[in-house]
Specification:
By secondary structure, the chain is of the alpha+beta class. It has 2 domains: about 120 residues, Aminotransferase class 4, branched-chain amino acid transferase, N-terminal domain (D-amino Acid Aminotransferase, Chain A, domain 1); about 150 residues, D-amino Acid Aminotransferase, Chain A, domain 2 (Alpha-Beta Barrel), CATH 3.20.10.10. Helices cover about 25% and strands about 30% of the residues. The chain is built from 7 helices and 17 strands. Strands 8, 9, 10, 11, 12, 13, 14, 15 and 16 form a 9-stranded mixed beta sheet that branches. The longest helix is centred in the first third of the chain and has 14 residues. It is globular, with a radius of gyration of 19 Å.
Length: about 300
């Protein structure tokens, strides 16, 4: 990344290669940071940020769950994100707000330790190389964290060690990504994605009780499907439901809508991208391209 690119850090812009912290920083040592993932899309000559307010609100809620005082309002953070995209003259990009304990004292406690907030933005294309053709998944032996262990509604750095273990296990077995189950054996989500099934023309996704992150893209897909007259059910999903689904796909800020064509080496449906997945993906593409009046309020020009 060229030095002329900037990172917003504690209210100031600094050069990308100078946005550094000490090796003993608390959040580096203990995984105590929190973050968000946000996409901006090129619309004509200018980029627009997808569901900016919802992402910033979730970032603030994660901070509240972990008792972190960000020191900035949601409006200030939103303005910082838009200003950073403009300053770096970025088009389509991925934005990463990150809050962390910027303190080098050893010890788990966070009382009295400085909280810093940084925002970076980088170009990003498809998260999965095979997104357009569909990916192969494996059900992980690692279970998804739950609220008795760590808050799954929070996007906290430490939570994602659970995800990394599952994803690395899947890739070591030859799959593209993992699917994680809850402690009681129901389908939860991917390491960094929510999951949807299509069966008999109905869209099904694990409910909040399945220890999922309440994804903003997930919520978008539910609203898009309902606007298209597609029935949506949030419910417990058994592992075997994955094997007999007509269609299956991941959703997420990075993943967007990524079809799944096999699970545990069992073909999903016809092992091709199904009609409902394609219809939802096409609708999503039109929305982020600024070609939908109904959902135009999801886009904030930078």
């Amino acid at each position: 990344m060229a030095a002329k690119q900037q990172v917003w850090m504690d209210g100031k812009f600094v050069d990308f290669d100078k946005a550094n912290v000490h090796v003993l920083t608390h959040s580096l040592q203990y995984g105590s940071g929190i973050f968000e993932g946000i996409r901006a899309y090129q619309i004509g000559k200018d980029p627009s940020v997808f569901r900016l307010g919802d992402h910033v609100r979730r970032f603030a809620n994660t901070a509240k769950i972990y008792s972190m005082d960000l020191g900035f309002s949601e409006k200030e953070l939103s303005n910082a994100i838009l200003g950073l995209i403009r300053k770096n003259r970025l088009g389509q990009c991925y934005v990463r707000p990150f809050a962390f304990y910027n303190d080098t004292r050893i010890g788990l406690g966070t009382d009295g330790k400085k909280v810093s907030v940084a925002i970076a933005a980088i170009p990003l294309g498809n998260y999965f190389a095979n997104k357009d053709k569909g990916i192969n998944c494996k059900v992980s032996s690692w279970k998804r964290i739950n609220s008795e262990i760590l808050p799954p509604h929070a996007k906290a750095s430490g939570n994602y060690r659970n995800s990394i273990l599952a994803s690395e296990e899947a890739k070591a077995s030859g799959a593209d990504e993992a699917i994680m189950l809850t402690g009681n054996g129901y389908v939860a989500e991917g390491p960094g994605e929510n999951i949807f099934l299509v069966r008999d023309g109905k869209l099904i996704t694990p409910s909040d009780s399945s220890d999922i992150l309440l994804g903003i893209t997930r919520d978008s897909i539910i609203k898009i499907a309902e606007s298209m007259g597609i029935a949506v059910e949030e419910q417990d999903v058994h592992r075997e439901d994955l094997y007999i689904a007509d269609e299956l796909f991941f959703s997420g800020t990075a993943a967007e809508i990524t079809p799944i064509i096999s699970v545990d080496k069992r073909k999903v449906g016809s092992a091709h991208i199904g009609p409902i997945t394609k219809a939802l993906s096409d609708a999503f593409t039109l929305i982020v391209a600024g070609k939908s009046r109904e959902f135009s309020h999801w886009l904030t020009p930078a």
